[in-house]
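User: Sorry, what's this?
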Amino acid sequence: MISPMYPKAEILFPYTVIPKLKDLRGEKWAELVERVSKLPETDPDALAFILMMIRINSCLKCYSGSYKFMRGCQACSTQGVMQFKGEDEDIIALYEKTREELLLYMEGEGPPPAGFLEIPQI
């Protein structure tokens, strides 16, 4: 849902921003972004990427009127990816861990654990 006052901001990380993140890191990151951006929005791999970005960007702490919200999701996500501490391997490991957690949840392993939307330890 796009805010009428801030047309660049949404409530959670939007799928449409994924391809715009491709050139922010190294080759492995670019390959992941390229692969995920070609998937349907509802594909589990795309959902895992979206969840990872929600965690990195702290989307649940964003609110209308905040600086992050006013800048928009693409600017916030660009900053989040570029400031991620670690190498491409580390952010890809975070994606893989997020994917595993999401798949377990989708397989009926119960409700999401506490802190599901926070960055897990890798």
Observations:
- The radius of gyration is 14 Å.
